[in-house]
Amino acid sequence: MVIVLLTCVLISLPISADSTGSTLPNIYILGTGGTIAGTGSSETDLTDYTAGVLDIDSLIASVPELPLYANLTGEQICDIDSSQMTPEIWLNLSRRINELVQDPAIDGVVVTHGTDTMEETAYFLNLVVKSEKPVVMTGSMRPSTALSADGPLNLLDAVILAGSPEALGKGVLILLNSQINGARETTKTNTEMVGTFRSPDFGLFGYMDGTTPRLYRQSLKNHTTASEFDVSGLSHLPRVDIVYLYPGMDQTAIDAFIAHKTEGFVIASLGNGGMPDSVHSALLKAVDKGIPVVVSSRTGTGVCTTEESRFISADSLNPQKARVLLMLALTQTQDPEEIARMFRIY
Ligand code: ASP
Q1: Ligand 1: distance of its center to the CA of 176 in Å?
Q2: Active site positions, annotated
Q3: Pocket residues for ligand 1 (CB within 6 Å)?
């Protein structure tokens, strides 16, 4: 009964420490959709369901324990399968988070998001949110209607982490399956398993031990308050395309992207910068046109040390994260030396 009452108050009113005298942290939950907001027609539909159906207030209401850990306000940014995520939504989301974290009454932000492109949104936010306050992204691999749905616990964990002093200054965090990962290194590694998010080379930051966050490491790369990127006045981001390499490839895709006015290339190279000669010479022509070429790898781990001095190394960023950084870099400069510097520090 008490829980039902708390839930009703929670959905209808933003509760703050000022108005209630509560000592609980004040957490904003921004909903963007994904499987965590997805529904299927039966409890055994684990893969056949529609993502991005439930709104954020329904998600909050589905975890009656939440008000024991934080005063919550929910807000819907969008309600989509994250395959439909766009740079324009990244910009809106980052603007809203930057407004929220300026408010002294708000202690942290949780973003619910589909897992397919969560890593890109997380890395983007990691580079443009201007605050040490916790920003925690979560989602789920099973829809809300599934037997053993993972969304409710992931949401509870994310709210607890966003209200914890341990999460301050760590950059944007990704928390699913009780595993706390950093935005820069974390990638989706499995199509169906709940433990899909991993940081293959560098490991996770920590765990949720029951309701206690335990953190063991953090990233040494620049983020949030140490980032130079300011997208507050932008309505779109530069176009950057990823080219995935394979044996026998020719320059068709590269020429097509150039014809469609790409502003930068990220290459998923064969190993440590390896590429067919035809691709190499097509990319050098792109560089001659002023289009920067960043070389990452399709191997999944490791630093990419391209031997071609006119290309830029993605360092240890995978292609999809290198794309995010190149898009941001191009909002500031076209100078390859400057872009290379950014790839060393972020
Ligand atoms: N397709 C879903 C999405 O990315 C998958 C998920 O959320 O797990 O929105």
Answers
A1: 13
A2: 35
A3: 34-35, 51, 81-83, 114-116, 139, 141
250 token code pair: 């020719």
The pLDDT of residue 6 is 41
What number does the ligand 1 atom closest to the CA of 117 have? Answer: 4
Q: Which atom of ligand 1 is nearest to the CA of 139?
A: 7
pLDDT tens readout for residues 111-122: 999 999 999 999
Distance 36 CA to ligand 1 centre (A): 8
- How many whole angstroms from 93 Cα to the centroid of ligand 1? 18
Residue with tokens 């010479």: 281
CB 125 within 8 A of CB 223: no
If pLDDT is split at 50, 70 and 90, which confidence band does 167 have? Answer: very high
- Alpha-carbon distance of 56 to 62, in angstroms, equals 10
User: Residue 118 Cα, ligand 1 centroid: separation in angstroms?
Assistant: 9
Q: How confident is the model at residue 20 (pLDDT cuts 50, 70, 90)?
A: low
Ligand 1 atom, smallest distance to 34 CA: 9
Note the residue count of the chain: 346
Q: Do 81 and 114 contact (CB within 8 A), yes or no?
A: yes
Copy the structure tokens of residue 325.
């950084």
- Domains in the chain (CATH in brackets) are 12-226 (3.40.50.1170), 241-345 (3.40.50.40)
